[in-house]
Amino acid sequence: MATVSMPSLENFDCDGDQSSVGLRWQKWKRALQIYLDAAGIENSDKRKAVLLHFGGIGLQEIFYNLPGADVTDNENSYDIAIEKLDDYFTPRQSKVYERHLFRLLKQENGEKFEKFLIRLRHQAAKCQFSTSLEEQLVDQITEKCLSTDLRKKILAMGDTASLNTIIAEANSLETIERQMSEFNEKPLASTSGIINAVATRKNKRQNQKCTRCGLEDHGKQHQCKAENVICHNCKKLGHYARCCFHNRNFTSKTKNQHLGSA
C-alpha cells in the first residue's frame, strides 16, 4: 500500500506581534491537530513529540520552562502540554470582557460579509454563549452590518430569521451590489458617439463655402462682407460675381445648348 507524503508545518512564531500571539497559537494548534489526525498519530507521547518538533526552538524553550508541562510516560502528556501552552499564549479572560469585545465588532468599510462573520464567530467562541450563540450572532449582524437593505430584511423576518437565511441574504445582496457597480462603471459609448457626430457635423458646417463670397472662414450666422456688395454680373445686391447664380445658370444653359447641337 502506497504511503501518502504529508507536508510539514511551519514553526510557530512565538516572537511576533504579542497582541495577536493568542490568535496565531489557536490557528497553529488547529493545523497541528489536523496533521496528527491525518497522520494517524494516537500515542500521547508521540503527539507531544510532534508538537515540540514542529513548534520549533522558540516553542521548545517556552515549553521546557513552564512548570509541570513536561511529563512523560503519561497517557495525558499531550493534553497536559497543550493545556500549559494554552495558558501561556492565551491567558484566560472573563466572559464579561470577551463579550464586551464581541459587542464592539462591526463590519468595516469594504469588508465582505463572510469576513465579518468569521471575526464574529472567532470572538464569540471566547464568550461562552453556549445555546444562545446563533441568537447573539444574529443580533450583532443586525446592529453592526453595513448594508441597510440586509438590516431591513432581518427586521422584516422578525423572530423567524435564522443565521443561515441571513448569510444567504447577505451574499445575495453583495452579489447584486457588485453587479450594479459593474454596470455603473461601463463607459457610455453611445453618448460619446453622439458627441463625436455633433462635432463632425459642426465642422462640416464650418468648412462649407459661403454662397455669397465663396470663403470658408465663416458660417451663415456670421455677417458676410459680400452682403452689401452689388454683383457685376446680375447687378443684384448680396454676393460677389464669382458666386453669381445668374452666371452659373448661364454657363449651364450654354453647355446644354452645345451638347444638343453636337
From TrEMBL:
Residues 231-244 form the CCHC-type domain. Signal peptide: none annotated. The keyword Plastid does not apply. Keywords: Metal-binding, Zinc, Zinc-finger. InterPro entries: Znf_CCHC. GO terms for molecular function: nucleic acid binding; zinc ion binding. It comes from the Eukaryota. Gene3D superfamilies: Zinc finger, CCHC-type. PANTHER family: ANK_REP_REGION DOMAIN-CONTAINING PROTEIN-RELATED, RETROTRANSPOSON GAG DOMAIN-CONTAINING PROTEIN. This is CCHC-type domain-containing protein.
